Amino acid sequence: MSGTNPYTKAQNALETPRQIEYRLFSSVTRALMDVRPLMLSKVPADTSKIAYAIGWNRDMWNHLMPEVLDEKNPMSRDLKLSLINICLFVNKRTDEITQGKSTDIEPLIAINRNIMEGLK
C-alpha cells in the first residue's frame, strides 16, 4: 500500500485551496472547542488532549507562515502583516497555556472562526 491515501487525494482534487483551508481551520477549531470544558474544569483534566489540540493549532499557524511570506503570494502587505501578528499571538498564547499561565483558549477559537468567515 502506498503512502498516499487515494480518498484524500480524490477529495483534495474536488476542493479549492480555500475549501481545504476552511476544512483544516474547522477541524482544528473543533478540537479546541472540545477541550474548552477541560480547560475550565477545576478537576485535573486530560492534559494530553489539551496539548494535542493547542499544539495542532500552533502547528497549523506555523505551517501557514511560509506561504504568507512567499514573495509570490498575492496578498497585500497589510494582510500579510496581520497574519504574521496573529501567528505570533497564537504562539504566545499557546506558550502561556502550556506553561500554566493561562487557561483561556477563547481567543484562539475566535481567531480561527474569524479566519473561517473570511474563507467562506
Percent helix, as a range, is over 70%
- Estimated radius of gyration: 16 Å
Q: What is the quaternary state of this protein?
A: single chain
- Poorly predicted regions: none
What share of the residues does DSSP label as strand, in percent?
Answer: under 5%
How far do the termini sit from each other?
Answer: 36 Å
Mean pLDDT: 88
- Counting DSSP E segments of at least 2 residues, the number of strands comes to 0
What order do the SSEs take from the amino end to the carboxyl end, as H and E? HHHHH
Number of helices: 5
Structural class: mainly alpha
| Shape summary | globular
Largest sheet: none
What does this protein structure show overall?
This protein is mainly alpha-helical. The protein is built from five helices and no strands. The chain has helices at 6-14, 17-40, 47-69, 77-98, 106-119. Helix 2 (17-40) runs antiparallel to helix 3 (47-69) and helix 3 runs antiparallel to helix 4.
